[in-house]
Amino acid sequence: MKIMVPIKRVVDYNVKIRVKADGTGVDLNNVKMSMNPFDEIAVEEAIRLKEAGSATEIVAVSIGPQQAQETIRTALAMGADRGILIKTDTDAEPLTVAKLLKALCAEEKPGLVILGKQAIDNDCNQTGQMLAALLQWPQGTFASKLALSSGKLAVTREVDGGLQTVELNLPAIVTTDLRLNEPRYASLPNIMKAKKKPIDEKTPEALGIDTAPRLKTLKVVEPPKRQSGVKVKTVGELVDKLRNEVGII
Amino acid sequence: MSTAVDTRPVHDEAEDEQILDAIRKWLERDVKPHVLELEHKDEYPQKMVEQMMELGLFGASISADYGGLGLSATTYAKIVTTISEVWMSLTGIFNSHLIMAAAVQRFGTEEQKRKWLPKFATGEIRGGLALTEPDCGTDLQAIRTRAVRQGDHYVINGTKTWISNGIKGSCYALLVKTDPEAQPRHKGMSMFLAPKGPGFRVSRKLEKLGYKGIDSAELIFEDYKVPAENLIGGVEGRGFHNAVGGLELGRINVAARGVGIANAALKESVAYSQIRKTMGKPICQHQAIQLKLGDMATRCEAARLLVEQAARAYDKGERCDMEAGMAKLFASEAAVENSMEAMRIHGGYGYSKEFNIERYYRDAPLMCIGEGTNEMQRIIIARQLVERNPV
Predict the structure, then answer these.
(1) Rounded CA gap, A46 and A59, in Å?
(2) ipTM of the assembly?
């Protein structure tokens, strides 16, 4: 079975982002970029499935500028077999990404697509679900455990109120949650070997997908600074404030 | 015959970033949370050593032809700095090992390279350099450990001290006198690969001010037999050349450690000074603290650039004794000054064992002493200045 893992190049999670002075977006100048952490979990899970003998090939796919190739190299160093870069300088929206991935699935015919549940830059949490809908494949989102047997994939999902396990026929779409695994870091020898693994380049045009944005960003602002809290002396006072000032009980 | 081969690889910036990323992830997840405990117990970081083996660090500078990664000095220095920002001691575990490997790679016979380097590269055999003796360090030609040939082996007697990885390692590049009467003295010196065995014992672990976790030991050789085939290069009398041949890279490494400590002291000071308030505002808004931060940051950048300059010259195969000396001198003093300033900025917390600052303060002076004292570096720099600028 072939596993496709879409990965996104995002601002590193350690970076404290700053909004551009003109309010048009986030300042990306000299900002460290890395693989979206949820996508790292997706790559790790694919590698584990391959190590367990459940998969034969892992294809890492990224959609973005030329520099997204570096993110693909990281996936290759972790253990993916080859990469595909769909090159675009447009900030692709989730539906565009899902359409591009659908077109790629038609070419690659993976048995499983594992994605991060969301990217930490815009937190959309849409691409996996949209891809499943476009392909009309079953989906298991927010996965914290995967078990593959007899051609069926049991996905334990983290949902409000607990865990839910669904069984999917393959091919299927899975989106990863934080507790699915702890991704490995690439070893230095594997980083060197990854240089020799192939990365194909494609364009949205060649796949027949229009990447023009459907959304218009009007303004980007910093979230308001958190106000300091209030100490209450008694439970009665707390209840009174919640009822009469906040109005939530 | 010895074959002095310099395999100096091409340096690749994008690859550097990937390598450093992997190392930062390892440091963040598997090193940082355990440093304080291991440091204060002076406990050997066995698990981290295994992780360093998996990462491939024991083969970092060994040629790819012999199973290593063949990284450039520039890349290697960045790795050393990155790790030293978290726990300088760890760098000693693979650095000393790689200097031993470099002696074989640069001066060993082809047979020795094929036999030893692949095992050094995986970390299957780990060790270090055994040069210093109780009575001599900088004046290496005064060593007294003696090797006498008897048929197909040599018999070695003597004592070595301050040997990094002395307890946990299993093989050392051992500098001895094969002809104590030779004049000049260095012509009577030879270097052997000395695996642990009968007649080779560790007499004690040395207690130190800092540089905790790593096992610095005293080694005693009593009628220790080593096969003649372990004589590096296969010819007697080249030991001093073998030992000093790695000094430039060794000094770049120590300088890189200094940059790491200086950076760590700065980073923690910048963070702390924004949190700690006095007189109603964060201390970073007081000029007294700003003056310190300004100097500390400038020292870090200057030290880093000196290290990069020396490493680049080394990678190009250019003469770099003066450059390596300057990097080592400046970066080690930067580490000492920044750790002291960090302690002043942190006040009582800087003096507390619950924070990292006191560790930087204890670790930094080693950089001024090890790999040729800073006094020696000044002399090397001055002599080179004169030699390169004749009137």
Answers:
(1) 9
(2) 0.84
